[in-house]
Amino acid sequence: MKARLDTLIGRVTMYNLIVLVLAALVVTAIVAGALGQLFYTPLQLVLSTVVAVVATGAVSWLLARLFRTRAHLPSSAISGLIIVFVFMPTADPAGLALIALTGAIAAASKFVLAFRGRHVLNPVAAAAVVMSVTGLYPSAWWVATPVLLPFVAIGAFLVLWRTRKLALGLTFVVAAGAITIGRIMLTGTAFPDALVLAFGSFPIVFLAGFMLSEPLTLPPRRWQQLLVAVVVAVPFSIPFTLGSVYSTPEIALVIGNVVAFAFGQRRGVRLRFAGSRTLTPTSAAFDFEPASPVPFRAGQYLELSLPHARTDARGARRMFSITTPPPARLHAETPAPVSLGVKLSDPSSSFKRALTTLSPGATVHATWVGGDFLLPSDVSVPLVLAAGGIGVTPFVSQLAERARRGSAGDVVLIYSASAADELAYTDEIAATGIRVLVIAPDRPAELPPGWTYLGPARLTADVAGEAIPDLAARRAYVSGPPGYVDHVSAQLRRAGARRVRTDAFAGY
């Protein structure tokens, strides 16, 4: 079931999925308005949507030209659509002008409230604070209504699942929900009524799914993200006033953004393309030289931004695991190179076509570095790693870092490939001296010392247990396409593995 869901929603990029979900919510609201279930008419909703999206996109495009960069229009569309649900829809020209101003402020915040190429605050939250504090057009958060709640919940789940932020969303929903329900019950309201009131009248689910989860304003580590969720939940749920300023959901989110910024990657990453290398008939390594050192941990990924003409539905941003080890010295005079392993399919996405046609010396940008698929720092802990195809990339970085420190440790790698010649990074993995078990349709002509061919069939619990007798004593890590990750994780657990961490390459 998990693999099917990943495959279904992985057909579009994260940004395009959010656009589609928000657009579907707008259509749902229009239908509800036509049926008299909302206070707003279809005309008000349609006009407000058009004005918000166009204004946000147009200002983003203009400012991008001014700052000599390229606007990311799917992100602008997301901001415009969120504005529709945060501010009161209207058909009045003056009100529409204020909605347009809100979109302009949201777009401008990405450029003005930015630090070294990275915006600090959620754009819509920043705009809402400005409009509410000045009294120009206070936020309404009308999306918090029982009529839309089931649709918002489904949409939020899809977004959080696709972005791997379900734990973040649930943490906020539970914390904000518990505090809000408790506060309502203190007024004498019974629990069932307080539950309905909390989730039917407060934008808990919407904020969790579509605003708190924005990747560019989140810290890189999972525990940091969960802490931010709790930080946002407290001012979101407990009313307060500071002079003429009163508590609102947007202020709570801005507080969380500031805390997240203190944790997170504080700059965009500028990379100079150095060249590519063929790994297998269907994969290649792309090497980059950073303008400044890139702080990351072995096993983490970066989101590469590659604006290009005729961008298809897969978008202009993609996430790739870093295969090089982290810098030995972060403040070295020459920044350590960064390399990415990429699966190249035929036909290819417009992004990968643009990537393969990069000229050496071209400059690209990464907007995000993060991830929690990390091996134990203690190399004495025995491990079993399982990689499906290009899913081996995080392990390449991790094993190289361990080997640089003296030993890769007691590690067994189960490496599954679609063909004998599709084993990537064999030299790098062999150099670490770990044991490798290969699964491929055909036996490879040559295997490095310590590598064993297990056969052509998919991994089963029996095969895993026979090949690795002490598997139950090892921590397990699985990386690859969603279907592979689900299957292998289940088989390793059946074979006795008790702790299995996964990294699914959804929509790769």
Automatic annotation (TrEMBL):
One of its GO terms (molecular function) is oxidoreductase activity. SUPFAM superfamilies: Ferredoxin reductase-like, C-terminal NADP-linked domain, Riboflavin synthase domain-like. It comes from the Bacteria. Residues 266-376 form the FAD-binding FR-type domain. Its cofactor is FAD. The chain crosses the membrane at residues 12-39, 45-64, 71-88, 94-113, 120-137, 143-161, 168-188, 194-213, 225-245. Keywords: 2Fe-2S, FAD, Flavoprotein, Iron, Iron-sulfur, Membrane, Metal-binding, Oxidoreductase, Transmembrane, Transmembrane helix. This is Ferredoxin-NADP reductase. The lineage of its organism: Bacteria, Bacillati, Actinomycetota, Actinomycetes, Micrococcales.
